Amino acid sequence: MADWTVADSAELYGISSWGGDYFAIDPDGGVVVQPAGPDGARVSLPALVEELRGRGQRTPLLIRFSDVLASRVREIAGCFERAFRECDYAGSYRGVYPIKVNQQRQVVEELIEYGRSTHLGLEVGSKPELLVALALIDHSDALIVCNGYKDRGYLEIALLGQRLGRRPVVVLDRPQELETLIKVSRELGIRPHIGVRARLSARGAGKWSGSTGERSKFGLTVSEIVGVIARLRAESMLDCLEMLHFHIGSQITEIRAHTDALREASRIFTGLYELGAHVRYLDVGGGLGVDYDGSQSSGDSSMNYSVQEYAYDVVAAIREACDERRVPHPDIVTECGRALVSHASLLVFDVLGVNEGAGAGFLAPRPPAEDEHKLIRELHEVWSGVTPESVQEAYHDAVRLKEEAHSAFSLGYLDLEARARVEEIFASCCGRILACLRELERVPEDLESLERELADVFYGNFSVFQSLPDSWALEQLFPLMPIHRLDERPARRATFADLTCDSDGKIDRFVAPRQEERVLPLHEPDGRPYYVGAFLVGAYQETLGEVHNLFGDTDTVHVSISESGYSVEQVIEGDSVDEVLAYVQYDRRDLSERVRRAAESALRRGDLTLQEAALLRSRYQQGLTGYTYPERES
Questions:
Q1: How do residues 135-160 score in pLDDT, each as one tens digit?
Q2: Contact present, 437 and 450 (Cβ < 8 Å)
Q3: Could you tell me the CA-to-CA distances from 219 to 128, 177, 198, 211 in Å, in that order?
Q4: pLDDT per residue as tens digits for the range 479-530
Q5: What domain range is 619 assigned to?
Q6: Is residue 365 in some structural domain?
Q7: For residue 435, with 0-12 CB atoms within 10 Å meaning exposed, 13-18 middle and 19 or more buried, which class applies?
Q8: How many domains, in total, are found in the chain?
Q9: pLDDT for res 219
Q10: Between the CA of residue 24 and those of 37, 48, 110, 146, 530, what are the distances in Å?
């Protein structure tokens, strides 16, 4: 192990590329979290996990770092303030957080608190989210941007919210909403703050680009916006139109998509002003990306620009259009949800077991006896002749002989033991070939998949569908790596299988320094707990998770880090079995009574002793109140 250093692990897993300044590796081989960067306070993640387990928390465990949330709020606002100064921009920055990105109360409350000095508001897309925003926002300087489908009840609540000192802006997503809004406004005697959402011809870039452009789900065409202006003027309500809004999708991977949209939207904004609508806010929507794979590229899991470049481009495009038409600079509103919360959360899970792939040990097969089948002897000769120069030929020969053996077995010419010997020697051939491939600069095309096909399977104590749903549904890449033993060379190549019975419950695509990999380097099991972290999971994963196989929410902790150490600010217990069962309409008492009656019947038949009946009922009750995931003794 002496030739392996933590610097090698840092390069192997790309932690400095996707983790920014928030994550690093300490000299002892453990991941550290440092919300203020390398010169600030830090905490050892392995030590934190072990202490949390000592406090009674269980894996899988979601850890939210409150200081990282605070840092993200400051960074994004700071980038815009810097752009305002350097571009001589006269407006203000007004960020809003879209609740849908992570609706957990603790996250939303912390963001509001950390964003108080920058007037961070909330974006809502439904009536329930609006109810949350009205309760949590407690000052009029923070905007509540009201998107989504709006019925009469939604609009009444939004307008009445103004009486609480809130500032909800009702953004018209559909032309029909305007008439209802005018009617509700008259009846309540409250003049609304109105916005219009423009359906731009400019399209986004990345996985969600197909939902943008002229066929996007929401937004008004230019002709419809002009119609809104005429209607509001007729009702003497044109002064109520305060915001132009647009959105070109989530996780925009290319800066050009942002600039194209900004150019079009800025022209619409100045056109509104010239028509007499003195709009004061320009909401550029979301889309600010997160570099999940650290490649700084236009790939679906990356972005080819920085936050500062994004801020400069937003401010410059709007200023240029406004100055050209001599229109006052509007306040700029952003909805950067993913960029705000992704880095603050990580999932830690332990490995429950390992299924060794064919390439795990590269063990020499037992030499064949003289009376063994010809196919066995020929396959052993292939194994003996594997060299870096002959890998391709050796692989082709080994595959041919294995297929011939399978045909002979199906026809009854090869018995079960002989087939087992063929599979044993074939696995050894593949292992030896794979060892040679790792020494080559260029791998033959037809052997590129061998690494994945022969990889170990590490069984992780988590559910992809509950904790990393985008990995399954959208093939989203999340950085995964061991959080300890990083001063050791990882000798295994593996994929992950989760606890569910679904064949899709796996992770076999991984972040790598140069390109996406289909295997992840991991360490030899040594009998001790082995922890893996899934990073940058703060956006969407918690609210999209579902109870496949009835695996519920994990334990969650909020951790604050300071120079004197860390403190656990909040603990949210994960779902118990009976809570998850209640989601799908099972009643705990009914289930217990059914099992009790079954036990009574078994006692009468003599199939169950009193001691066994008591143990069964005790374990059943414990199971109902326990964690939905396997639990390791502390």
A1: 999 888 999 999 999 999 999 999 99
A2: yes
A3: 21, 11, 5, 12
A4: 999 999 999 999 898 999 999 999 899 999 999 876 668 899 999 999 999 9
A5: 590-625
A6: no
A7: middle
A8: 4
A9: 87
A10: 9, 15, 24, 39, 19
